[in-house]
Q: What sequence folds into this?
């Protein structure tokens, strides 16, 4: 038992690790900022389309409320169906653009995946060169209470990507 603990302690001591700050790295990669701006622009455009349909549904409803006393049962039914159809159209468009597998998700994936791959490859290359067996992201909720700046390789990653700070 004691020998096992000693071996584990020796092998753990031999492993090297490093930290990166992904927030810091991403803030210093211009392609990431451009991708975010592009996502914001397309998101605003799509949100405006959804809001326009929602406004149309609200207008139909207000018109229906003010005119319902003058409408026949058939006209009321027709108006109600038009309102429901417009609301459904707005909900479907919102889901198409902003749903879990929607257009915004796909756009984000297509823009961010190459940047993330490039960063991953840079981290992997540095890790291979320096013998790191573990690299943690200090910006995530990994529960890192203290980390020496000596083990932070964020600037090395930026240099490997071709950006200096």
A:
């Amino acid at each position: 038992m004691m020998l096992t603990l000693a071996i584990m302690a020796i092998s753990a001591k031999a492993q090297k690790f490093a930290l990166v700050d992904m927030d810091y790295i991403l803030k210093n990669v211009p392609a990431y900022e451009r991708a975010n701006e592009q996502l914001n622009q397309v998101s605003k455009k799509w949100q405006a389309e959804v809001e326009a349909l929602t406004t149309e549904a609200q207008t139909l409803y207000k018109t229906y409320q003010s005119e319902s006393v003058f409408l026949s049962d058939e006209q009321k039914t027709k108006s109600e169906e038009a309102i429901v159809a417009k609301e459904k159209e707005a909900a479907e468009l919102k889901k198409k653009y902003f749903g879990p597998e929607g257009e915004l998700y796909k756009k984000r994936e297509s823009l961010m995946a190459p940047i993330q791959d490039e960063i991953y490859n840079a981290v992997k290359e540095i890790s291979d060169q320096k013998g790191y067996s573990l690299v943690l992201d200090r910006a995530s909720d990994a529960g890192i209470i203290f980390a020496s700046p000596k083990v932070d390789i964020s600037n090395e990653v930026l240099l490997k990507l071709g950006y200096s700070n």
Observations:
- The chain has a mean pLDDT of 87.
- Strands lie at 16-20, 132-137.
- Residues 44 and 144 are 36 Å apart (CA to CA).
